[in-house]
Here is the input.
Amino acid sequence: MNSISLLGRNLARTGLRTQAPLTTTTQCARSLPRNFFRRSMQTRPQPNQQQTRMPTQEDLRAQFKNKNRNTLYYTLSIILGTVALSYGSVPFYKMICQQMGWGGQPISIHSGQYEEDDIASRLIPITDSRRLRITFAGSTSDVLPWKFTPQQREVRVLPGETALAFYTATNLSKEEDIIGVATYSVTPGQVAPYFSKIQCFCFEEQRLNKGETVDMPVFFYIDPEFLRDPNMSKIDTITLNYTFFKAKYDKDGHLSPVA
Here is the structure.
């Protein structure tokens, strides 16, 4: 009995007292990840359970209507922009042609391209050069009841020499006074940069009373630089042509041709 009691005491001091805490600690260590994993699963956000609503026929019809409306607005914008550009480009193009002599448009010295001293130096006839034959032509639009003709068929001038020509215009209407505007061109077109007008009836609109007849002058010269251009060496005849159009003032006070 004494030896059994002694053995029990030794075991109690060593193995039995140390194994119980170790077993408890091991179980807690193993159970910690399991509990943590379960908490993580519980706190993970759940996927959205709402289902996407399919568009109804009314929704599709509204989308189609909005698309058609946007297409209509876009098309109208293009049409209006094209019309505005076509109306605005005509006077702008004419102004550029008059300044640069493009498209057979003679240069006007009133445009400010030349200084007064420069103009005076150009108005000196080159006596040892060939004379150029200047012919004249005139016409009117179909809606303008005017008779418009040149008074002379041609004149011959030296480069640098000024010349004066006249046109005659008659308003054939017996019922109304009519405003006319003239456009002009030079043939051949490459001569236009050297054909300079000092004064011309085409610089402003012309108003003729019913049955009225007026003489319209044009004062011009051929720039001496014409002789220095090798492309002009074979040109001896130049035609100045005018066309009159009927015009009227719109509600904004702007003068525009009548088609």
